[in-house]
Amino acid sequence: MPLASSFNRFVRSRLPAGTMWGRAGRAGAETVGVVLASLGVFAAVTWLGYLPHPGFQLPVIAAGAVLFPLRRRFPGAVLLTLAVLTGPAPCLGPITAATAYAVARRAVPARRLTWLLGTAGALVVVSATVAAPWAGPGRMLYGLALGLVLVPTTVIVPGLVGTAYGQQSRLMRALRERGDAAERARRLADSEARMHERSRIAAEMHDLVGHRLSLVSLHTGGLELALAQAAPELREEAVLVRQATRDAMRELRQALGVLGPRGRDTGPDMLTDATGSRADIETLVAQSRDGGIAVRLDWTGPDLDIRPARVRRAVQRVVREALTNVHRYASAAHVAVTVVHSEEEVRVTVRNGAPPIAQLSVEGRGTGRGLLGLRERVELLGGTFAAGPLPSGGFLVEARLPAEPGDAVVLERPGAGSAAPGTAGDDVPSAVRQYMGGDRPAPAVRRTVEAVTLAFGLVALCVLMVLGVGFVYAARPHGPAGPPPLPRLGMTYQEVAGTGVLDNAAVRAAATGHEPPRPAGAAGCIYPFNGATESRPGGLTVARYCFDASQRLIAIDRFTVPSVRDAAPWETP
User: Fold this and answer.
1) How far is CA 204 from its chain centroid?
2) Which of 101, 348, 469, 470 has its C-alpha lying 20 to 30 A from 42's C-alpha?
3) Beta-strand (E) ranges in 327-375?
4) Dihedral of the CA atoms 43, 44, 46, 47 (nearest 10)?
5) Residue 414: beta bridge partners?
6) Which residues pair with 542 in a beta bridge?
């Protein structure tokens, strides 16, 4: 669209150099935020004591911090890489979640986005399962559970939120474009109606006024020929009348050109490439100076030859109409014409001081239709117009025009109502009007609210990640599975004691005098209770563990010793 392209050119040419640094600062703030979130998850899980290798997590977080700024340039590759790293390093989850959100919010085709998010989720599960024995909970089954816990918080939920935000932004953009199109259609319909009315007025003026002026000119020519012989002294008056009639016909043709279907002037003052340029304005000023007006021109900025013809014509009309009014009402005053041309606007100012002697125009006070026409012309281009007397007694005419008007919106005057019913503006939905008008919040406020919302969402995801990782690590077995290992020859005394085989004084007393000879080289033996079982009535099976001088187990013997049965109470004498 012309308006959008003109605005983009203006932004690129006028924004300060620090804007790029502002974007870089925003990207850096986003990176720092997600890295701090990952470090928070790392600190929480480490404090709970669930990570078996905490030192492995920090280098992976550093790698994620390097990959995160590349998510807009390489969205698919960065997301899949972070998904692979998230399996063995769950603390990388916040960075992966932010990347999935950013990728899903972009205008990615739905099928490709589904494939990308599905692949990323599968990679998280596979990497967590494969890395479980050496960097995870230990068994692959618990690694699979960890991956299934991480997928919703790092890929699925952020991807769905990003998709929703992206669709909302695209929908609002489409609604605004529809509203702009409806507004342009309404203005086009209004312009077409005005054009038809102007054409009708032009036809009426041509039929009525043009015909009468032609008759006046014809009779004046005949009167001039008659007076040349009958009254030569009156011939000059007839010549003046004929010239005035001719000037009126020329001005009428110009007015008919403005009111005509094409909206362009005809005749000697028709629009050319030089209209409204600096040379054209200097010519107008020179003509006024030759007519006895003390006028000065101040021009700031480049020439207007690079601007659209509508802008140049409006500048020329403002200067010409203002100087014409000076000729009529303040021909003895000093006049200053100022043109300031910048990248965004063209400002035209015509200021005249108070005349030294009050001057009364032969044409009276005037109707002011010239200034009204200038106001309409300027506002049709999206500019502003002001004209009025000065406290010093002079008069000021000022117009501000956009340098690239594009499809400028017609400004409503105070007191003007809304668009008439039945126009294209009635087709604009209320939601579109809200976003087109002044009711929508400022972009900075919208961005702030969105950033705060996303920050709270990221914090909630971090909490869910910590709870999920803690649940998986808390559910895994923490000790050796199955019965403790049995003592075997060659083990040290400490290793045998670690299996639960300890000396028992009662068993030692029972074995005293009934045990077989100790093996050669035995420095000591222990008699654990867990090795004694009742084998038959009146006897116990006792296990003996003998160690050498270096406390190495050298023999395991089992033998039976007689047991003593206590008598029943009624058998006691």
Assistant:
1) 55
2) 101
3) 334-341, 345-352
4) 110
5) none
6) 559
User: How do residues 496-512 score in pLDDT, each as one tens digit?
Assistant: 888 888 888 888 888 88
Looking only at the bridges linking them, the beta strands covering 334-341 and 294-300 are: parallel
| Cross-strand bridge partners of residue 541 | 533, 560
Query: pLDDT: is 236 or 91 the higher one?
Result: 91
* pLDDT given at position 398: 93
Q: Is 98 exposed, middle or buried (0-12, 13-18, 19+ CB in 10 A)?
A: buried
526 compared with 16, residue with greater pLDDT: 526
Distance of CA 280 to the CA centre of its chain: 45
Give yes or no for a contact between 501 and 521, defined as CB atoms under 8 angstroms apart.
Answer: no
Amino acid at 437: G
Both tokens of 115, joined, read: 């494939």
- For residue 356, the number of C-alpha atoms closer than 13 Å in the C-beta half-sphere is 3
To the nearest 10°, report the CA torsion of 161, 162, 168, 174: -160
Q: How many CA atoms lie within 13 A of 249 on its CB side?
A: 15
Encode pLDDT of 83-124 as tens digits.
888 888 888 889 888 888 888 887 567 778 888 888 888 998
Cβ distance 381 to 400 under 8 Å? no
Angstrom distance (rounded) from CA 463 to CA 461? 5
pLDDT at residue 457 in the model:
79
Residue 463 CB partners (closer than 8 Å, separation 6+): none
What pLDDT does residue 413 have? 42
